[in-house]
Design brief:
Strands 1, 2, 3, 4, 9, 24, 25 and 26 form an eight-stranded mixed β-sheet that branches. The protein has 904 residues and is of the alpha+beta class. It is 22% helix and 31% strand.
Length: 904
């Protein structure tokens, strides 16, 4: 295993598909400041229309192919659906600082076409979360020798009234942190600080020069007139603060202060919430020198003539890079759009054939290389090449001079880069799925954005889709599971991004959205794919911290506040399982029952995670002491679910209602009297692996009953026979992939390979049908029609389609359930022999399954130690193994009969 990144960033190149505005290629200009350079290629019809590849809605482009390291990626831009007239746009690595740009125009109609291509180059500052306005920071200008103390540089922040989020601050922010406009560091302390008397901020300050007539100056914004108590060293002061709609300053005279180190404490007095940007200590006579001007973003470049025909250099103020553009089309006009968006403005001005500068709202700038007209004969194609590069002025000049845009040379570069695509080696039966898999691979790999803010830094981040300008914890677990099939390092980085150092008192893990701990499953899957011991030693302490918080044991966690042993995470997010409109969850919110009602999934997930960590703990003598705790937790939570949540009549596990004293009182029912949890949540003890055989059989029956949860397109989120099932919900009435992945793995744990295949095969068929029809990768599928819906370039929760394809069609892949911890496994070079040694967490008398994809065209024999193994050939070409009578540690060997005879 390579070492993990020190922070939460991804190990990806500076050039990549990181845009948040228009699809193309981006360069990270200044990571510390969140500054990004974008180059987007926008095709269209000459003097008719320009197609804008917006990443924020369906706009006619589709991720097409990509390598994991971004040495190559492409998208198809449809000008006339479907593939009548289109442009394939790709970017290929030349070196660390430059990329080949290729645009292939294809006309498959019987009519000539007049097309155009716009290169749009822009410098993009960071924006406030949610694609809001550009983030503007201020600068503290102080007298010489004075020091500005940023409010986030505290040693301690304590709210007088503890909060559930004290140990799990959202998005990896610091406790009390708020992002906003005109703060000196981009952030300030807010979140209600000062509302309660005794709220405390503690700083350690080093004063380099003594003050004779010192003044304490605070920059802030207050909701009410009031006071803030200040203690500097041993002296106490009271600072009057004034209600304000914007940031302002207040001062208090503190007299002489000797040079040296001392503490500064700020205490809320309960007079109202205050946002604190920071403070300084200066001489009274120098107060007028202090100012806080905004730091403007300079996004309009100086356009410098390039060293060769068809080239241009862009120089931006306060940007560490120059950018070079180079093209090989003769009929070009260089123009400028002075506007912050092109979706409307470029369309509105498409018939302006006169102006070189198109003057819009002047809130942004795009340099436009306008290539026109591009004539295509009927049933023909044209390929244009270009280059984009970054560096100092001299480096960019040299790159533009040295590179040639000869078509033959460019095509060699393009073909070499494209040859690095990770194409799966699959059985012939899998060929029918290859195109739909290609689109998901490209979507998942290229759904990466910059900047995303966490832990006081800007990072590259794998996003479920570019509409989500944020972190997303459970989605990112599934992104990692999908990336695992494509590139282990990408998957590992995705996991690492959400883990925090042991002892982090403000973030037990990086939390955004539904607290479903998919990271633990990604950890298990990566281990079972062959990670080294160092992998477990690096990640186990972080994953244990994550677990302990979900279990309600550290950091002020409130997940275990009742007396039933059932867990709930309502204090951290409204959504227990990612299913936004799951009926009992909606009811709990609407009736404000979060304090007294517990779902099933949270406790069930905690049980399964405890089992995963219990297996991992055996890898180090230092962790063996943790195992009794896991066993006790598993026993406590299992007994609670069985005792309080099981509904014998409905044959589902239930939301459990508690009294104000925290004692369980009964199950949550719908107004009709029906159990309110007839849906996926009610089946989750299956995933936990705690059900008796009789209860497991009843749950499995519901899962595959076509009048209840099973549909022609997979597993419905809600039982179709329930009185609260509806056809127009987001999750209710729809089929999603992520929870189906959990139940697929569970069918392997329960020794039902035929049911596992039914889930995977149905999902792959649905996915193939929709992606081939629309070229889109959707969030979910509507039960009534089977058609895709939701976000159209969705990786995230739809990523299991990559896992299912790999499990059944990719040679050399092995798939197991949650109860198997691989100690050692290997194939021989020809994939005719497979050996594995593993630990088994399940019951000895519980059959379980493995899927092993061996070479085709052979007869196989299986042998085992510590278990009994039987196998059959599945319809895809791999082997379904059913293992029985398994001891806690066992081994299996599968070998081709002809290979055995030849002595392999």
């Amino acid at each position: 295993m390579k070492s993990l990144p020190a922070g939460h960033d991804l190990r990806l190149p500076a050039w990549g598909p990181y845009t948040k505005q228009y699809m193309g290629i981006s360069h990270i200009s200044d990571q510390a400041r969140g500054l990004r350079f974008d180059l987007s290629l926008m095709p269209g019809f000459y003097r008719r229309k320009i197609d804008i590849p917006s990443v924020l809605w369906e706009s006619g482009y589709h991720p097409w192919e990509a390598t994991a390291d971004y040495s190559f990626f492409s998208h198809r831009h449809e000008l006339e659906w479907k593939d009548e007239v289109y442009t394939d746009i790709s970017f290929s690595r030349l070196d660390d600082n430059s990329r080949l740009v290729r645009a292939r125009f294809v006309n498959q109609t019987n009519h000539a076409q007049n097309l155009v291509l716009h290169w749009m180059a822009s410098l993009q500052p960071p924006r406030l979360p949610g694609h809001r306005e550009i983030h503007v920071c201020a600068e503290a200008r102080l007298p010489q020798g004075a020091q500005w103390i940023d409010s986030l540089d505290y040693k301690e922040l304590t709210f007088a009234r503890s909060r559930p989020s004290d140990g799990l601050v959202y998005d990896g922010y610091l406790r009390g942190e708020t992002r906003g406009q005109h703060y000196t560091g981009g952030s300030a302390i807010g979140q209600g600080f000062g509302t309660d008397e005794g709220d405390l901020l503690l700083y350690e300050v080093q004063l380099n020069t003594s003050l004779r007539e010192g003044t304490f100056l605070l920059r802030y914004q207050a909701s009410h007139n009031g006071d803030l108590d200040i203690r500097i060293g041993q002296q106490s002061y009271r600072l009057n603060v004034h209600k304000s709609e914007e940031l302002r300053t207040s001062t208090v005279h503190v007299g002489g202060i000797p040079a040296g180190s001392f503490s500064v404490e700020l205490y809320g007095t309960g007079t109202g919430a205050i946002i604190i940007d920071g403070f300084t200590l200066v001489e009274q006579a120098d107060i007028e020198v202090v100012s806080f001007p905004d730091l403007p973003w300079q996004t309009e470049p100086e356009l410098l003539e390039g060293p060769v025909t068809g080239s241009l250099i862009l120089r931006y103020d306060n940007c560490p890079y120059h950018y070079g553009l180079m093209w090989n089309f003769p009929d070009v006009e260089v123009r400028q759009y002075k506007n912050d968006e092109l979706d409307r403005y470029a369309r509105h001005t498409v018939h302006n054939h006169v102006d070189e500068v198109l003057l819009g709202n002047e809130k942004g700038h795009f340099t436009n290389i306008f290539m026109r007209p591009i004539h295509l004969n009927p049933n023909s194609s044209i390929t244009l090449h270009g280059m984009v590069c970054s560096g100092s002025y001299e480096e960019v000049q040299a790159a533009l001079q040295q590179f040639t845009l000869k078509d033959e040379q460019c095509e060699i570069v393009y073909q070499a880069a494209r040859a690095d695509l990770n194409r799966p080696s699959c059985y012939p039966t899998g060929a029918t799925y290859l195109f739909s898999q290609q689109l998901m691979r490209a979507t998942l790999l290229t759904n990466t954005v910059f900047p995303v803010y966490t832990k006081r830094s800007y990072i590259r981040h794998n996003t479920p889709g570019r509409w989500w300008d944020s972190l997303y914890t459970w989605d990112s677990g599934f992104i990692g599971l999908g990336l695992m099939e494509l590139d282990a390092q990408r998957a590992l980085d995705c996991l690492n991004a959400y883990l925090t150092e042991p002892g982090d008192s403000q973030a037990a893990f990086i939390h955004h959205g539904s607290p479903v701990p998919v990271q633990h499953y990604l950890f298990l899957e990566l281990w079972n794919r062959g990670q080294a011991q160092a992998y477990v030693h690096a990640l186990y302490p972080q994953l244990r911290q994550y677990y302990l918080f979900l279990a309600g044991k550290i950091g002020g966690s409130t997940t275990d506040t009742g007396h039933s042993g059932l867990l709930k995470t309502w204090d951290y997010f409204y959504n227990s399982g990612g299913w936004d409109d799951y009926p009992p969850q909606k009811y709990v919110q609407a009736q404000a029952l979060e304090h007294t009602v517990a779902p099933v999934i949270t406790t069930s997930q905690a049980i399964r995670v405890a089992k995963i960590l219990k297996m991992a703990a055996r890898m180090s003598d230092a962790w063996l002491k943790d195992i009794p705790e896991y066993e006790a937790d598993i026993r406590l939570w299992s007994e609670a679910l069985e005792a309080y949540a099981w509904d014998e009549e409905a044959a589902y596990y239930s939301y459990v209602v508690h009294g104000e004293d925290g004692q369980p009182e009964g199950i949550l029912r719908h107004a009709s009297g029906a159990n309110y949890n007839r849906g996926m949540d009610g089946l989750y003890p299956l995933v936990a692996g705690i059900c008796t055989k009789e209860r497991a059989e009843r749950l499995i029956s519901a899962l595959f009953d076509e009048t209840r949860l099973w549909t022609p397109i997979g597993i419905s989120t809600v039982d179709q026979s329930a009185p609260y099932y509806r056809a127009d919900g987001y999750w209710n009435g729809a089929v999603w992939m992520p929870h189906q992945w959990f139940f697929w793995k569970t069918m392997l744990d329960l020794g039902h390979p035929e049911l596992a295949f039914r889930i995977a095969d149905t999902a792959l068929t649905v996915w193939k049908r929709e992606t081939e029809t629309t070229y889109n990768c959707y969030e979910h599928f509507i039960v009534h029609t089977g058609r895709g819906a939701g976000w159209h370039h969705f990786g995230g929760l739809s990523a299991p389609v990559l896992n299912w394809f790999a499990a059944y069609y990719e040679r050399g892949k092995v798939s197991v359930g949650f109860n198997v911890w691989m100690l050692e496994q290997s194939f021989n070079e020809t994939l005719t022999t497979y050996k594995a040694e593993f630990c088994y967490e399940g019951a000895t008398d519980q059959p379980f399954s493995l899927i092993v994809n061996m070479a085709s065209g052979h007869q196989y024999e299986a042998s085992s130690t510590g278990c009994v193994v039987n196998w059959t050939m599945n319809p895809c070409g791999g082997l379904d193994l059913v293992i029985t009578d398994c001891l806690p540690q066992a081994a299996i060997r599968i070998q081709a009969v002809d290979a055995q005879k030849s002595g392999e």
